[in-house]
Design goal:
The chain has 12 helices and 20 strands. By secondary structure, it is an alpha+beta fold. Helix 1 packs across helix 6, helix 1 packs parallel to helix 8 and helix 8 packs antiparallel against helix 10.
Length: about 400
């Protein structure tokens, strides 16, 4: 097989890239190791920044998002029974939209297949060849056969555990990691959500109330990293959530059937450079962000917007200058975004190793934010627009 751009991975990064390239008249083939059903069922975050919303709409693929997604104008942070309310449009002029990542993926896959553009599901990339020459290739297995996809450029959008980043020679790509000793126990519940996305810093630990629809709540509790969601009965979960959200009379948070549980271990991870030869990496292949701030999908979209622009310049001019600058054009934004999520994580979680002094510093920071519009605007701008990429 032959194409211009070979894309490994049909997550948000690979799918967005394929549509951005098509908009510029550039052909691509997506290879995805899992089935379509599996890809479309993966539950991930669903807070879309302004830049991601604009990108979907500019591609002509945002109709269902605009119809079914929920505008989120507020972000709340609670501590010691107090509440900091961030009026997002008042502070920034923009809002975020709640629209699940799996819904975004469904829309992007459906549009690509409807246009007759190739996505090969259950096509596992096994190794990459000739990354430093003009025609690299992706070796993969599909329909029980070994096959080769020749291309001009390879986009590695296959996540943290994919083969693309590992295909660069040892020592070329440096990694930077911070691991946390706690996790998020997340549930989906058939219960109307509270009004705004709400984080809380309680003496018993972090909690988050968010939403997936007007009737489905997405809820989280900070738990030890070695914990098991099987240890949490419905009653135990609801009791702890009411406590941490300072809902003493149990009147604010509505309970309902919990129909899904998962446990997410928190970490920060950056790999740089984000390229080697004709291989260019995006999304979770080169950065993992703590979930506070909901940046993962938005970071991936920002990456591939820059990558698509650089690939288009390559075909238009014959020069690889923009491709050569891909990491340079991405990496400062990546570090800024990781910094924001780490800041929120450090601000809102209970750390066992914290001394009383450090705990006091957390509370002092939250108290300052509560009294300072400038501090609130700083957080709101990063929450709404940190991953935006200027064209």
């Amino acid at each position: 097989m032959r194409t211009q751009v070979g894309i490994v991975g049909a997550g948000p990064a690979g799918l967005f890239l394929s549509h951005l390239l098509k908009q510029r008249g550039i052909e691509s083939v997506i290879l995805e190791s899992r089935s379509r059903a599996h890809v479309e069922a993966r539950v991930r975050a669903g807070v879309l920044e302004a830049g991601t919303i604009d990108t979907l709409n500019a591609l002509g693929l945002g109709e269902r998002m605009m119809r079914e997604g929920m505008v989120d104008d507020g972000l709340d942070m609670r501590f010691r029974g107090r509440n900091i309310h961030l009026d997002l449009p008042g502070l920034t002029g923009r809002s975020v939209r709640i629209y699940g990542q799996l819904e975004v993926v469904k829309d992007l896959i459906a549009a690509r297949l409807a246009a007759g553009d190739p996505i090969l599901f259950e096509a596992e990339a096994t190794h990459l060849d000739d990354l430093t020459v003009t025609r690299p290739s992706i070796h993969f297995r599909h329909d029980g056969k070994n096959k080769i996809l020749d291309c001009d450029v390879i986009a590695g959008c296959d996540g943290f555990h994919g083969i693309c980043r590992a295909s660069a020679p040892e020592g070329v790509i440096q990694t930077y990691t911070r691991n946390y000793d706690f996790a998020w126990l997340g549930v989906l519940a058939k219960a109307p959500p509270i009004a705004d996305m709400t984080y809380t810093n309680h003496d018993r630990g972090f909690a988050l109330c968010s939403r997936r629809s007007s009737s489905i709540s997405r809820l989280y509790l900070q738990v030890p990293v070695e914990d098991d969601h099987a240890n949490w009965s419905d009653a135990r979960f609801w009791d702890e959530l009411h406590t941490r959200m300072f809902d003493e009379n149990r009147s604010e948070i509505q309970e309902g059937e919990i129909f899904q549980r998962d446990l997410a271990v928190l970490r920060s991870y950056i790999a740089s450079p984000m390229q080697y030869g004709r291989l260019y990496l995006a999304g979770d292949a080169v950065h993992i962000v703590p979930p506070a701030g909901s940046k993962g999908l938005n970071m991936a979209v920002a990456d591939v917007r820059i990558m698509a622009r650089a690939i288009a310049a390559f075909y238009e001019t014959g020069s690889s200058d923009a491709l050569d600058r891909y990491t340079q054009d991405c990496i400062d934004r990546v570090w800024r975004t990781i910094r924001f999520s780490v800041y929120l994580t450090d601000l809102l979680h209970r750390f066992d190793e914290h001394s009383p002094f450090q705990r006091g510093m957390q509370m002092a920071e939250l108290d300052y934010i509560a009294q300072s519009e400038a501090a609130q605007r700083l957080i709101a701008e990063q929450y709404v627009m940190l991953s935006d990429v200027r064209d």
